[in-house]
């Protein structure tokens, strides 16, 4: 079965169950943490793919990755048990991402990423987030990233749109214009 289809089926079923129990917000936070753990710790995926590691250890590892030192929710625990029972742990990262997408669509949440050359203070970040939320008529989750290679300005990604006002991009455009103009002269 294709990864996308399988992941979407599990995510939809989990969303329906979580809504029925009224715990979709708590589950969302756990799956955000789990998704971040997958992204920052590549060895987590390796451990889940390891056939020698017992199911109890995988369960314990996933619960720790999703909730840290706190006890995970009952819904999350049941979901992990189901995934491990059916040997679908290799698809868990995709299931989590699909759930996050479903939740964001349901709650009208947009995801934004602000890349700057220097750190931005919280007041500026909050002002950007509220302005974007007002324009898009949705709540915005804003992640800020510092990337000195853009040399100045900013790059703002939200959903599928990008506003690139970085100095590096503007310099590349000017350089390309000079190259194009010189080609026409020769």
Strand order of the largest sheet: 2-1-3-4
- Overall pLDDT confidence: 90
Describe the largest sheet: 4 strands, mixed
- What's the total number of strands? 4
| First-residue to last-residue Cα separation | 57 Å
**Strand percent estimate:** 5-15%
Order of helices and strands: HHHHHHEHEEEH
C-alpha-based Rg, rounded: 21 Å
Tell me the number of helical segments per DSSP (H or I, 4 or more residues long): 8
Estimated helix fraction = 55-70%
| SSE class | alpha+beta
Low-confidence spans = none
Q: How does the overall form come out from the CA principal axes?
A: elongated
Set out the fold topology.
Elements: H1 3-21, H2 24-40, H3 42-49, H4 55-67, H5 74-85, H6 92-107, E1 109-116, H7 122-136, E2 139-146, E3 154-158, E4 161-164, H8 167-185
Helix pairs in contact: 1-6, 2-3, 2-4, 2-6, 4-5
Description:
The structure is a single chain. The chain is α+β, with helices and mostly antiparallel strands. 64% of the residues lie in helices and 13% in strands. The protein has a four-stranded mixed sheet. The longest helix has 19 residues, at 3-21. The protein is elongated and about 70 Å long. The mean pLDDT is 90.
Summarize this structure briefly.
This protein has 186 residues and is α+β, with helices and mostly antiparallel strands. The protein has helices at 3-21, 24-40, 42-49, 55-67, 74-85, 92-107, 122-136, 167-185; strands at residues 109-116, 139-146, 154-158, 161-164. α7 (122-136) links the parallel β1 (109-116) and β2.
